[in-house]
Here is the input.
Amino acid sequence: MFARTSRRFMSRMPIVGGNWKMNAGNGTTKQSVVELVEGLNAAPKPSSGCEVFVAVPYIYLDSVSSTIDKSFKVSAQNMYKEAKGAFTGEISGEMLMDMGISTVIIGHSERRDIFGETDALLGAKISKALSLGMRVVACCGEHKEEREAGTTMDVLVPQLEAIVANTEDWSNLVIAYEPVWAIGTGLTATPEQAQDTHAKIREWLASKIGTTADGVRIQYGGSVNDKNAAELAKAPDIDGFLVGGASLKAGPFSTIYGVF
Here is the structure.
């Protein structure tokens, strides 16, 4: 399927994240959160060669982190660039770290498209999170019309530039490539499409940070499910997944991370 010149770079441990978004597990109650956590605790555990996290709504971070099996990390879905202040509705990296939450997703397409977050703001968030020693999952992606027009990299480069400009410690930075046209739509990039874009992202990174790019993990996010994960995982530049709806049930999610 792939014209590989080498296997996945040996230092890149696959990383799979389950982004619950504004969902309390598979429902809207604390009980549905409890049921999902119980399901994950009973499911096959991630292998020692794969890192797995769940990104849950703020109000459930404490309860999930205290009850989920320690083979899963717990992540926030967002944070603000300041430590504290008059920023109603926001939460800081310092607060997250104080709760024992050291992973955060920054720049998901829904934050960009629905809430108007700019590359400049997202860059400041990335810089802040990394300065605190947090693991950052920084997202980038293009819309359907941009994919069809052949301008995918034209769209991705400014987003990637904001990441590069605000990253010094690449050991704590994960890139999530999420084609917006494949998020929650049922559409999924083919393994070849996903690999091609991941390889181009890594090639562009190499032009900016040299051989360090070989070690940067790049997740694929875009309607990943228990049926397509195994084929996508074969691509040498796909280092894991950022999973949406399929992470809200323990069975499908465990099948997804189980492919690594």
Observations:
- The chain has a mean pLDDT of 94.
- The chain has ten helices and eight strands.
- The CA atoms of residues 178 and 221 lie 4 Å apart.
- The chain has one domain: 15-257.
